[in-house]
Amino acid sequence: MSYSVSPIGFVRSCFKEKFAIPRQPHLAPAARGVLELVAPFNNGDAVQGLEQVSHVWLLFLFHQALEEQPRLKVRPPRLGGNQSVGVFSTRATHRPNGIGQSVVRLDKVEDGRLWLSGIDLLDGTPVLDIKPYVPYADSVPDAVNGIAASAPELIEVTWQPAALLQAQQHAQRLGEALVELIEQCLAQDPRPAYQQPTPERRYGARLWDVDVQWHYPKPGSICVLAVVPSVE
Predict the structure, then answer these.
(1) Most buried in the list 49, 104, 158, 170, measured by CB within 10 Å?
(2) 179 by DSSP, 3-state: which?
(3) Which helix (H) or strand (E) holds 73?
(4) Do the beta carbons of residue 204 and residue 214 sit within 8 Å?
């Protein structure tokens, strides 16, 4: 038996590519986006009452990681990308039905749109459902996860002075906390864990409409080199 589902909306996100997206929600509180609902859910009736809710669960599709052949085992980044475990013991993007879930902060509801922060969603992500976060039921103080027992260890983020000035100028133009967003994302070290880059190697990612470039001047440290407008 098969079932079909249709998106109830799409996310317009600060993350324009998969690289450097936090691997869990809330690891970058400055990461923001808007969920734009589609008809018939965008007329206000479907979200009535959400103004009383601070956080929501989003069920969505990993639309750039859908696969015809399901994987039984995956190699999660949390384990260094070189250890295989069962797909259902991870939150890896390579899932049998391509479904993900995130709990995110709901900042505002207006005109068929939900303003969100602390997101880990790629721009254009199709959302399948919205559910309110219920603190007494959804928070389990004594829960255990031996694979991901604690938040990832952060690394130092420094700036070239010119890059920091560029980020501040773009932040003012965008009306977004761009400096904080860059630092929060890069502090989690988005590169694959098995890579040991030389100081000469540059990395880059697109946030909002700018390209952020950085390198690793020494182990455990990132230096932001430039924040420049993206070239389409």
Answers:
(1) 104
(2) helix
(3) strand 73-74
(4) yes
